[in-house]
Amino acid sequence: MTRRLTATCASVCVSLVLAACANAPMPADPAATPAAQARAPVPTPPPEPANRAPSGPDRSRDYVVGAGDVLRINVYQNADLSLETRVNESGVISYPLLGQVVVGGRSVGEVEAAIADGLKKGNFIKQPQVSVLVTQVRGNQASVLGMAGRPGRYPIEVKGMRLSELLALAGGVASGGSEIVTLSGIREGRPFRQRVDVSQLFGGNTAAEDPIVLNGDTLYIDKLPTVYIYGEVQRPGPIALTPDMTLMQALASGGGLTQRGTERGMKVHRRNAKGQVEIVELRMTDTLRPGDVIYVRESLF
Question: Which residues form the Soluble ligand binding domain (predicted)?
């Protein structure tokens, strides 16, 4: 009897323990707590593709095609219509299915639209996607002559190229070149000529005009004008004449007077409007002119 009672009590105790364990709350997942979530690494977004097109307008699409230019034309998913061709002297190219296509005088974007429109209207391609790339620029060029870092002919690769951009392509003004440059060409069927002060152009002067360069223009950079000094100076010879150079500045450029030189009685030989040489006396603050010849006399005492 006692043994049976003991077994019954043990069975009841085991049942109570199992019920308590079933009703107890489960331990929280450490990874699900706010602190764990805060410590969890934030996934980094995938990197952007490296070949994404830069923002802003593409000036190359505004380039006006000219005779001699080489165009590379691509039609998406139509390799047989993709080719590279040169524009003839009449501004025309020969294109498959379309024949003669006038491209001279049109921008790159207009050429793309013209070819796409021809393929669509001819029922050759329903939705043609045409891209045109100018691989060689021969139809729009400007020349840089004179005292430039790299004189020569340069392509006008974008519409609206400025004089400053052309000058930069040519390496700027070389040593001994004048800061006054001359741009010449044809505007509206008439000869065009404009002098531009480069020092004002790059000196932050917003009033200085930076003209647009067109096909066939010529940019000429002259030598710096010179004056000559001889007599009782340390370094006689030619001196580059800067704008508004005075007689005193010219003497300083020549190294100043020798021990026997004097400022009195200095003579300046100058050509007048008739081309005749005159002897004039200038004050130390007077400005010189191109071609002036300064003579410094010897002191008598």
Answer: 144-178, 227-278
> pLDDT per residue over 173-212, tens digit each?
998 899 889 999 999 899 999 999 888 887 666 656 889 9
Tell the CATH superfamily of the 141-223 domain: Outer membrane lipoprotein wza domain like (3.10.560.10)
Please spell the DSSP secondary structure of 17-85, one letter per residue: HHHHHHHSPPPPPGGGSHHHHHHSPPPPPPPPPTTPPPSS--GGGGPBP-TT-EEEEEETT-GGG-EEE
Task: Indicate the pTM of the whole model.
Answer: 0.62
For the segment 85-92, the average pLDDT, to the nearest whole number, is 92
What CA–CA distance (Å, rounded) separates 15 from 237?
122
Q: What is the pLDDT of residues 219-237, one digit of tens each?
A: 999 998 999 999 999 999 9
Q: Where are the domains of the chain?
A: 60-136, 141-223, 226-296
What CATH number is given for 60-136 in this structure? Answer: 3.30.1950.10
Q: Which residues contact 293 (CB under 8 A, 6 or more apart)?
A: 227, 228, 229, 230, 268, 269, 270
H or E stretch at 131: strand 130-136
- Write down the CATH number for the domain with range 226-296: 3.10.560.10
Fold match between domain 141-223 and domain 226-296: yes
Provide the pLDDT for residue 45.
44
